[in-house]
Write a structure and sequence with these properties.
Blueprint lengths: L15 H15 L4 E6 L9 E8 L7 E6 L14 H14 L7 E5 L9 E5 L18 H4 L2 H21 L16 H16 L7 H12 L8 E4 L8 E4 L2 E5 L6 E4 H21 L11 H12 L6 H25 L16 H9 L5
Antiparallel strand pairs: 1-2, 2-3, 3-5, 4-5, 6-9, 7-8
Helix pairs in contact: 4-8, 5-9, 6-9, 6-10, 7-9, 9-10
Length: 366
C-alpha cells in the first residue's frame, strides 16, 4: 500500500506581522505617504523563495495589487544554496520586453538585505487560478480535475504554446547573464550545475545511490546533437501559471531559468505532470491519464515551432533526476526541523524513487 504524502514542511521562520511593518516602512521611501495594506502570506507559499501579497494605499500607486518575492529565509534550511533575485528580475523583464509570454509586471528590485532581511522584488499581482500542488490537481476535488476534456485540452494547448513562444521569441544573445559557469556546452553546464547542487544537498548527510545512478545513466544517454540553445524557463509546469479560465494570464517562478536546449523545458513539463499522475494512481485514483501526455506535448510543440523534440528519454530522465535532488533537499529540511526521521534507505526520501529507478533501468512506462 502506498504511503500517504508527507505533510507540507515548514517554509519559513519569519514573523508575517513584523514583515508587514518593515514592508510599509520600505514602501514609504519609494512612494511618500504610501502604506502597504492587507499584507498576507498565501497558504500555498512556495518551497524556495517566499511570497507576500499586499495592496498599496496611495492616491496614485504604480500598481495597487502587488506580490513580493523574497529570497528564502536562511534560517529555514533553504532549498537552494543561492537566491539571485536580480537574476530573476532581469529574466522577467527580458521576457516581458521581448516576447508575448504573459509575465507579471515587475516594479521594484531591492538588493539591500536591510529592509526585509533579504533581497526582494515587487511585481503586479495577477488574479486567476493555479492548478494546485497540495493536493495535486490530478486528485479529485479541484477545478482542473472537474473540468471537461475540451477545457483541459484548451489549457494544455495554451501551456505548450507558452514554451513555444518563449523559446522562439526570446533573443538568446540578450540572456547572457543566465550563462552557467564552467566550460562546455550549455547542456553540459546545466547538468554540471545540478551535480554541484546534489553535492551541496548531501554534504555531511547520507548520499543517494539512486541519484548517482541516474547521473551515470544520463552520461550513457547523452545526445549526439544537443540542439539549439534557448532561454529555458526552468520550472516549466502548469502549477507555475495563473490561468484566466483556461488561458494563461501570468507565468511565475523564474528562479531556475537558464540557457539550454528546448527539450529541457519540455522534459520538465511532461515529467512533472507524470510525477503527480503516478502519485495519484498509487493511491488508487484514476487521475488525468490523457492530460499532458508525452506524445501529445511533443507533437503540439513540433507543430508550433517546426522543431521536432529529440532525445526525450534523456530529458525526461533529467527532469526526474533534477526533481529528485530538490525532493531530497526538502526531505532533509524536514529532518532538520524534526518533522521526520532519516530512514535506513535515503532513496526512500524521494517520493518518485520507484519511477526514477525504472528510468535508470530503462523500463519506465510512458
Amino acid at each position: 500500500m502506498a504511503k500517504a504524502p508527507r505533510s507540507r514542511p515548514r517554509t519559513t521562520t519569519r514573523d508575517p506581522e513584523r514583515l508587514a511593518r518593515r514592508l510599509t516602512a520600505w514602501l514609504t521611501g519609494r512612494l511618500p505617504g504610501a502604506e502597504a495594506v492587507d499584507v498576507r502570506v498565501p497558504a500555498s507559499n512556495g518551497m524556495s523563495s517566499e511570497t507576500l501579497l499586499f495592496d498599496i494605499e496611495h492616491p496614485e500607486p504604480p500598481l495597487r495589487a502587488c506580490a513580493l518575492r523574497l529570497a528564502a529565509d536562511p534560517a529555514a534550511y533553504t532549498v537552494f544554496p543561492v537566491y539571485d533575485l536580480p537574476r530573476q528580475y532581469r529574466t522577467m523583464r527580458l521576457v516581458a520586453d521581448r516576447t508575448d509570454v504573459p509575465v507579471p509586471r515587475v516594479l521594484w528590485l531591492e538588493e539591500d538585505r536591510g529592509p526585509l532581511g533579504a533581497p526582494f522584488f515587487v511585481m503586479e499581482r495577477v488574479e486567476g487560478r493555479v492548478p494546485p500542488d497540495v493536493m495535486p490537481y490530478t486528485y479529485e476535488g479541484n477545478w482542473l480535475h472537474a473540468a471537461n476534456e475540451a477545457e483541459r485540452e484548451r489549457l494544455e494547448a495554451a501551456s505548450v504554446g507558452l514554451l513555444a513562444r518563449l523559446h522562439d521569441q526570446t533573443p538568446v544573445k540578450e540572456a547572457g547573464f543566465l550563462v552557467a559557469p564552467g566550460a562546455g556546452s550549455p547542456l553540459r553546464a546545466h547538468v554540471e550545475a545540478q551535480r554541484a547542487y546534489y553535492t551541496w544537498v548531501v554534504d555531511g548527510l547520507s548520499r543517494s545511490p539512486l541519484i548517482e545512478d541516474a547521473f551515470d545513466r544520463l552520461d550513457a544517454l547523452w545526445p549526439r546533437d544537443e540542439g539549439e540553445t534557448v532561454l529555458s524557463w526552468g520550472d516549466a509546469r502548469i502549477g507555475n501559471v495563473i490561468y484566466d479560465g483556461f488561458e494563461p494570464a501570468a507565468v511565475l517562478d523564474w528562479e531556475m531559468a537558464a540557457l539550454g536546449p528546448r527539450e529541457v523545458d519540455l522534459g520538465w513539463m511532461i515529467y512533472l505532470h507524470r510525477f503527480f499522475q503516478d502519485l495519484t494512481e498509487s493511491f488508487g485514483q484514476h487521475g488525468l491519464p490523457g492530460f499532458l501526455r508525452r506524445d501529445r506535448v511533443e507533437a503540439r510543440y513540433a507543430e508550433l515551432t517546426g522543431h521536432t523534440p529529440r532525445d526525450m528519454d534523456f530529458h525526461i530522465l533529467y527532469a526526474a533526476l533534477r526533481h529528485a535532488v530538490v525532493m531530497l533537499r526538502v526531505a532533509y529540511r524536514q529532518v532538520h526541523f524534526g518533522e521526520i526521521d532519516v530512514p535506513a534507505d535515503p532513496d526512500t526520501l524521494i517520493l518518485h524513487h520507484d519511477s526514477l529507478r525504472a528510468m535508470v533501468r530503462g523500463d519506465y512506462r510512458d
